Amino acid sequence: MSDNSLEAAPSRHPSAGAPRPEGPTPRPAPSPRRRPRRAYGRHARAFVEWLVERDGEAAELAFADGFARDFAVRDFRSSLKDRRLSPASVNAALTAVDDLYRFVGLGAPRVRRERLPAAAPRAVREDELRALFRAAERRGRPRDRAVLALLALAGLRISEAAQLDVGDVVVSARKGQVTVRRGKGDLARTVPLGAEARAALTPPPE
Q1: Phi-psi sector, 82: left (phi>0), alpha (psi -120 to 50), beta
Q2: Is 102 helix (H, G, I), strand (E, B) or coil?
């Protein structure tokens, strides 16, 4: 038997010989479900720390009396606004404080939330609109295509389109119009139809 045969056979374990990464093993990112909990805990701790730093005796009273609770949380809200936090961040902190007080059995403080700015509506992109019309065409329902044309190409509101009768929409080769009998403010108006809207409202030839 040769000397080579006496050598130990190499290990077949999957981890054998694999290079190990240097430094500490990175921790996995927290799951989306745990992130709100961490944020709530951070806001609750910030409220308690703010109470203690301001006045220790007042902090104890804020967890013993409902009026003191409300006054303390309102002052906390003012401090957050003084730090130039966004209305959404202020409301998130107040929600965490609500949960804290519910947990200790005092109930949620009576504190008004910050008014959030209204988000501007996003216009439908041309490719999205094209996909909508193609989906309606695949379904083979001319009514769906007509409703889309009135909403997207004529600018009607959903409630206005729902109240239309067949005779309210007049389309010819060169012009067209739709009569809205009960629009915003319960007012009637006539909406002209452009070439694209007229083409969408015209039934395809059989």
Answers
A1: alpha
A2: helix
Whole-number Å distance between alpha carbons of 113 and 89:
11
Tokens 């990464």 correspond to what residue?
21
Q: How many whole angstroms separate alpha carbon 101 and alpha carbon 168?
A: 58
Given a contact cutoff of 8 angstroms between Cβ atoms, the answer to whether 156 and 182 are in contact is no
**Interior/surface letters 91-116, b for 16+ CB within 10 angstroms, e for the rest:** bbbbbbbbebbeeeeeebbebeebee
Of the candidates 200, 194, 206, the one whose C-alpha atom is nearest the C-alpha of residue 132 is: 200
Q: Are 94 and 111 in contact (CB under 8 A)?
A: yes
CA distances from 31 to 27, 36, 44 (A): 12, 10, 20
What is the mean pLDDT for each group of 10 consecutive residues in the chain (206 residues)? 46 48 50 63 92 86 92 95 93 94 93 84 82 86 86 88 88 88 85 88 70
Kindly state the helix (H) or strand (E) to which residue 183 belongs, with its residue range. none
